[in-house]
Amino acid sequence: MAGKLSSMTSSARSLHRIRVGSAPDSWGVWFPDDPRQVPWQRFLDEVAEAGYEWIELGPYGYLPTDPARLADETARRGLRVSAGTVFTGLHHGPAVWEETWAHVSAIAGLTRAMGAEHLVVIPSFWRDDKTGQVRESSTLTARQWRDLAAQTERLGREVRERYGLRIVVHPHADTHIDTEENVARFLDATDPRDVSLCLDTGHYAYCGGDSVKLIETYGERIGYLHLKQVDPEVLAGVVAEDLPFGPAVGRGVMCEPPSGVPALEPVLAAAQALDVDLFAIVEQDMYPCPPDRPLPIARRTRRFLRSCGA
């Protein structure tokens, strides 16, 4: 027994640089207001009950946007905020800057007021995640790549200078920053002083990437983690049918750990080896979902991550 306890203690100590949390996404929340989503009070109650201490804001307007009220609601449940999230279409160049900044500034202000230090930046979708309607080409021109890099760097500087936050760009299915090739191209084109990466293990696997390889290759660019797994059998059907991301989620492509890929233990070990403090926020996409489904999954996932030492 003593040897087993010693091994468990050593495992737990090995991931001491990783701070685990969860997000509204793991409760089926994709929109500020939707009758199919659980009320925000229930999300806060249940995420705390599941054993998490850190949360993200989720879609702006889902949680209270008054900093004093949100601070009270989170504090009395023993919760703290790790990041806010914004959506951008910066490959469209300077023409969309003012509109982008109007969206970003309100969220950045609330994020900073809650004591967080990160802003997750998600690129715009090239096709509608519900209907599958193609909005634009799935590939960028050379000019669009230059605009994406330059405008993202500008966003990183402005957010840092005005709000003291660091942006972490989130590769995402059905966006232009998705595959291993496109993620590498984006990182190579941007200044690490201004732009870091939010590695979402599920989205990266969905798009064919290897999370451990990415961490080992671009370790200095990894600023944040989203922990997620993909069901490979469901994914095979999604790819074969060329399903948009929304219907793929409805089919269950993102699954409960540890039943999918990638294995999270090697990802966490590779992240720990960077020897920097990192948030690892659980995000199991399952919109929409029955209101009683998220909490049991969240409890089991938290127990699983503890068994990994996180």
From TrEMBL:
Q: Name one Pfam family in it.
A: AP_endonuc_2
User: Which keywords, in A-to-Z order, does the entry hold?
Assistant: Lyase
Query: Does the record's keyword annotation contain Zinc-finger?
Result: no
Keyword S-adenosyl-L-methionine found: no
GO MF term set: myo-inosose-2 dehydratase activity
Top-rank taxon:
Bacteria
Q: Could you say which EC number(s) this protein's record lists?
A: 4.2.1.44
Q: Where is the Xylose isomerase-like TIM barrel domain?
A: 44-308
Give the protein's recorded name: Putative IolE protein
UniProt source species: Streptomyces clavuligerus
